[in-house]
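Notes from hallway chat w/ T.B., transcribed later so I don't forget. T.B. wanted the structure written out for a chain they're using in a teaching module, and asked if we could keep both sequence and structure tokens in one place. Agreed to drop them here.
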Amino acid sequence: MRHSLFIVCLSAFLFAGCLPAPYFQKDAAIPQNAWNSSFRPVFTFDITDSLSGYQPYFIIRHTQAYPYSNLWVWVYVKEPGDTAVKKTRVNIVLAEASGKWLGRGMGELYEQRLPVDLSEITGFRKTGTYQVSLEQNMRLNPLPEILNAGIRIEKIPFRDKQ
């Protein structure tokens, strides 16, 4: 019995170790769990390797009482050396058509980490400091039952094609 439990625990640790570590990850708590469009969390990080690729993710934590199956978000990106801020509107799907929440759930809380295509406004190809900010863009303002919003950047190593 102990031997089986040890193998299960070891397998879980090994599996968790295989998940990619984020290059950058941070989220912001939404005041009063109601995301007002005037609240725009800003995330600042440095890119030091312009040869690698980077995959951005949107992180969202919400309750099961969230009234919609999706979330529209404006994503603003300021690249190193630029004075202009580029923006794109992204639709984040939070539930299946049946109403079943996507992501991980525990009790009344759900968390999702969803890949986001920002190729229209950035490829993270310049070295330097980036600023990314998020603004909810739903009709209801403030947007209830949102606990946290953030971003995650995963590095995709350069692969030599020989």
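Follow-up for T.B.: The mean pLDDT is 87. Might be a good example for the class.
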